[in-house]
């Protein structure tokens, strides 16, 4: 049973997220259908394990998944075979054979998410599913100043969606990046970390938008983190702007 | 009754084309709903007249339409008012007051269409609705040579969809353009003309793809035009790559 690791891109618009759910169209569900068809539907169905879930409407440029095939096929053959069986909103960007102890979720070291925001007075119809939309004027220099306050190990309780349950809310952000793409009227945020709570990135972006728009002070992030209160950060940027960019092992 | 001209962009993916059709979602239908709501639903419904139809899945960057409002509103107010009432896949890019004899269809001088083709081995999920897809290797220099043969006044019978009816199939192409966007793995075609037959642009692109791929000689376009036979040109590029870029008056 050779194990394969696949790098997967998908347009999340028409999916109910990554994870298999009964009678819903999900990325994992479509991948499992394709892998099992390629393997001629073995008696024991093949599971496809991702690095983690993404929500409905969230995209991926570099989601990582692993699966075991009942026979040995060259990597390029797996990629081409899956391409013919997958719907057009999923692309397998790369397939590699990996050791049997590789696990897409447990072996992951850090993940990088990108958030794209369309910052113009009117909505661009071609970006409605691929960016968040924010018509108000933003001062990019304020965001540049504030974003570094996210770096490091913190208790992210103030940035967790209500109802979210986890053993610990301590996570480490190892890198942040902010780009003001004037030509495309987009603001692009990137966050790398050891893990993120449910909706954490979208709340982190929401806080930066309030800072950039002047409704929250530039130095408010350390205070928010210290509060450990999920009522503090209220604006959650929409799913359509969020991309799982890469997973590092 | 002041007359307004609007420049309209739309993502054609979720529309059954431009023209109003009973129980179908169309761009004209959505525009008429929004204009009539903005005008407080007058007894005599306001019609929105476009420069011409676009098919299901075809996009517009600069469709032009006109309509008459029962009262005088500033141009910027019309734009903002419509923005709040239109679905997110339509954007009004500009509104201007025009003379009462302006007519979006009859006053049009030329139209420019753009065709975007994704030329890579695997489908990009983010481009599936916004480009045509052609995995085979293309020689761009062959397309560059051939495309100029479309210029000028011709009888386009060989480039008309079967079933198409028109008084005359003579049209003039006034400009052509071809760009090989290596960075984005896209081929971009542009055609300006006094008018185009049903599916003409998509068949013109199909012929250029056959020429670029070597299955049709580089000098085949003059022969095709001379044949005046719609069985000659068989490949119709998909609607998803086609954009109505601008209309000139």
TrEMBL record, chains A, B:
EC numbers on record: 5.4.99.12
Designated name of the protein: tRNA pseudouridine synthase A
Purpose of the protein: Formation of pseudouridine at positions 38, 39 and 40 in the anticodon stem and loop of transfer RNAs.
Domain Pseudouridine synthase I TruA alpha/beta: 6-107, 146-249
Domain of life: Bacteria
Encoding gene per record: truA
Catalytic activity: uridine(38/39/40) in tRNA = pseudouridine(38/39/40) in tRNA
Keyword presence, Protease: no
Keywords attached to this entry: Isomerase, tRNA processing
